[in-house]
Specification:
The protein is of the alpha+beta class and about 450 residues long. The chain has one domain (about 1-40, about 125-290, about 330-455): Outer membrane efflux proteins (OEP) (Up-down Bundle), CATH 1.20.1600.10. The protein contains nine helices and six strands; from the N terminus they run αβααββααβαββααα. The strands form two sheets. It has a four-stranded antiparallel beta sheet, with no helix packed on it. Strands 1-4 form a two-stranded parallel sheet. Helix 6 runs antiparallel to helix 7 (about 335-405). Pfam families: OEP (PF02321). Keywords: Cell outer membrane, Membrane, Transmembrane, Transmembrane beta strand, Transport. One of its GO terms (molecular function) is efflux transmembrane transporter activity. This is TolC family protein.
Length: about 450
């Protein structure tokens, strides 16, 4: 008897250290956990920054309506020997002015300053198509961000349920240890009176060790799930669950919900890719239309050589001649029709491919919706049976305890009743967990996590 008390006390102290002796847990409700995940998780932040970056493309495309205005100034010290004839200026700085009678190697100063303005005034819809393409890119990034958020919140909710179940299983195993300890004490008493064989005490001691091992395994799983939940919330400390409602009542969402998946994140995202592809098709078509550019310039030049050939090198640093100009230019790629048609056909095929992916997602969601409804209905039937199973197992165990103490049954009969009770208690808690998981599955299939959260009110 003293040995049993010392061993049990030591075991409970050791278990308490495993569960509580480390960093204290942060206990949060499911809604608090979802808010933490949305605020902290790095991938969600990454998606947000991608969306914000895409918005800058829209601003850049709109800015193309603003003319470009370039200011420049230059000064040089160079010789001025020139000759008549054609020249490809690549890699060579040409000389302005008439041909030179001979080579002179005394350099003179030269200078120039001016500004040039270029304005793509009329694009025949190309600018609008570019802006629409950039806007479609923003919509795609935002849809991707919403889809990732939805997926992550579902993952957090799923893990939260796993943590809650693991906590319940620890309590069940602790209760089972107490039952075995009580049976062991009774067995020793009956053995000392010669009413039971001594082997029963050894068998109960073995069962106690098994029960403690099960508790250690349950505790390990609980701690693992808490760490995993903290990962999804991007926090350092382990996270524990606050909501006990999951094991107190069943959700009441019995009615079938609309099967319209048009706003589902798993549909909205591929649709945004489809719109992006269509916008690119339009951009390709508009990119081969004419463009009208308006330009203007004004500049001044200075040279150390006078109009009559006299040289005064330092005068080149000042300006002596001034000019301006204004004009327009029409650019039209006449021989690019073949390229345009090939590009349009290519992008059209890409659009059709994306459309088929949308259809596939709709098909998958429709079938998952049917499966989720079937799973949800089955979970209710299982929950009804586990309630009966638990009630019967409790009655049978109590009756078997009395029969064992009076010598009507042996150890095997009692321990089998105890196993049945442990399984019934476990199945009972898992049936609650299973039906909440089934509801979460329905919410994910419908694309609305609030279907699940509304049941927590």
């Amino acid at each position: 008897m003293p040995y049993l008390k010392i061993t049990s006390t030591f075991f409970l102290l050791f278990l308490s250290y495993l569960v509580y002796g480390q960093k204290p847990d942060t206990t949060v409700s499911l809604r608090e956990a979802l808010l933490l995940a949305e605020k902290n998780y790095p991938l969600l932040k990454s998606k947000y920054y991608e969306s914000e970056a895409a918005k800058k493309d829209v601003a850049l495309s709109r800015n193309t309506i603003i003319p470009s205005l370039d200011l420049s100034y230059q000064a040089n010290l160079a010789t001025y020997n020139n000759i008549t004839g054609m020249l490809d200026p690549s890699g060579i700085f040409p000389i302005s002015g008439p041909p030179s009678a001979e080579n002179k190697y005394q350099p003179v100063f030269g200078s120039a300053a001016g500004f040039s303005m270029n304005w793509q005034a009329i694009t025949f819809g190309h600018r609008d198509a570019q802006t629409a393409y950039a806007t479609a890119g923003v919509n795609q990034k935002e849809s991707d961000s919403k889809m990732e958020l939805f997926r992550h919140l579902a993952k957090v909710t799923n893990t939260y349920l796993d943590v809650a179940l693991a906590k319940q299983l620890i309590a069940i195993n602790q209760k089972n240890i107490k039952r075995v300890e009580f049976a062991l004490i009774q067995s020793r008493t009956l053995t000392s009176k010669g009413l039971k064989p001594g082997v029963d005490t050894a068998l109960f001691q073995s069962e106690l060790s098994k029960s403690k091992i099960e508790l250690l395994n349950a505790t390990e799983k609980f701690e693992t799930q808490k760490i995993l939940l903290s990962q999804f919330l991007a926090v350092n400390e382990a996270i524990n669950t606050k909501d006990s409602l999951f094991f107190e009542k069943f959700p009441q969402a019995h009615a079938a919900i609309s099967s319209d998946f048009s706003s589902h994140p798993y549909i909205s995202y591929p649709k945004s890719i489809l719109e992006y592809s269509l916008a690119k098709e339009k951009l390709i078509k508009r990119s081969y239309l004419p463009k009208i550019n308006i330009w203007s310039t004004a500049y001044a030049r200075g040279s150390g050589i006078k109009y009559d050939g006299t040289v005064k090198a330092s005068d080149g640093l000042g300006f002596s001649r001034f000019n301006y100009g204004l004009g327009f230019q029409i650019v039209y790629p006449i021989l690019k029709f073949s390229d345009k048609n090939i590009q349009i056909q290519q992008q059209s095929l890409m659009t059709q491919s994306i459309q088929q992916k949308v259809e596939e997602n709709l098909l998958i969601l429709d079938k998952k919706d049917q499966i989720s409804q079937l799973t949800y209905n089955n979970a209710y039937l299982i929950a009804t049976e586990t309630a009966t199973q638990l009630q019967s197992a409790q009655y049978a165990f109590k009756a078997m305890q009395i029969r064992y103490n009076t010598g009507l049954v042996n150890f095997s009969d009692l321990i089998q009743a105890q196993y049945n009770l442990l399984k019934a208690e476990t199945d009972s808690q898992q049936s609650y967990w299973y039906i909440w998981k089934a509801l979460l599955n329905k919410a994910v299939t419908k694309g609305d996590i609030n279907i699940f959260l509304n049941e927590l009110k």
